[in-house]
Amino acid sequence: METRERMAVEHRNAEGEAVGGALLRASGLLWMLAPLWYVLSEAIAAAGFRGYSYAQNYISDLGVPGTGQLDGRDLDSTMSAVMNAGFIGEGLLVVLAAVLLYAALPPLRGRSVLLVLVFVHAVGISIVGLVHGSPANLENGLMAVHGLGAVLAIGAGNLGAVVAGAFALRDVLPLRLRIAGIVLGGLGFLSAFLLTAHLFFPDGVTERVAVYTVMLWHLALGIALLARTRTRPLARP
């Protein structure tokens, strides 16, 4: 009888490990895909924008349909739909990745905080893709909504990297990657401050650093999760 019960427990544990590993692999793939999708969309949109400058232009200039001028910058994105798909697609992918990660891991302080931050980041970056930083929206007052989306995307994205590295994923990630998350998040916030204050570097540079720290963190997290599934089994909670 005891042997039969022990075998049943072992069978359930094996099933839990298999399910947890599958969820973790899927999450890792989505974490990796999200920033790659975003960067590819940006590169394609920039190629279709005559005279676009990665240093002087804002990223969201690529998502403005039609032509015009805003704050002295010429707007001429012929592939604005691609950039907006990049914004919205990145948000959707990281939400799916975070939900799968949350389901795969045992409960731990900070997991829910991280999940909420990912949702806020996703909402923010989706707003950026839906409410464009256009001259028309500057006139009708919707530019404030666009700006709020950018603040949510950058702020929650970088704070998520810090939270994940500091405590939310301390049992999942190696120490060096946890430190990297904290450093990347801190660098993102510093760059956001420099962007807001228009200090030292062109706005296009500081904005990109503030955004790319988030993308780099998501990519590194995805790689780390995939590596973990190859080295250690994971029991589903």
Give a quick set of tags describing it.
237 residues; disordered C terminus; mainly alpha; 7 helices; two-stranded antiparallel ribbon
Dominant shape: elongated
- Total count of domains: 1
Counting DSSP H or I runs of 4 or more residues, the number of helices is 7
Query: How big is the Rg?
Result: 20 Å
Total beta strand runs: 2
Order of helices and strands: HEEHHHHHH
Helix content: over 70%
**Biggest sheet architecture:** 2 strands, antiparallel
Give the termini separation.
26 Å
Q: What is this structure's SSE topology?
A:
Layout: H1 2-47, E1 66-70, E2 73-77, H2 80-104, H3 111-130, H4 135-140, H5 143-168, H6 175-197, H7 203-231
Antiparallel strand pairs: 1-2
Helix pairs in contact: 1-2, 1-7, 2-3, 3-5, 5-6, 5-7, 6-7
Describe this protein's structure:
The chain contains seven helices and two strands. The protein is mostly helical. It has one domain (2-231). Strands 1-2 form a two-stranded antiparallel ribbon. Helix 1 runs antiparallel to helix 7, helix 5 packs antiparallel against helix 6 and helix 6 packs antiparallel against helix 7. Mean pLDDT is 85; it is low at 7-18 and 233-237.
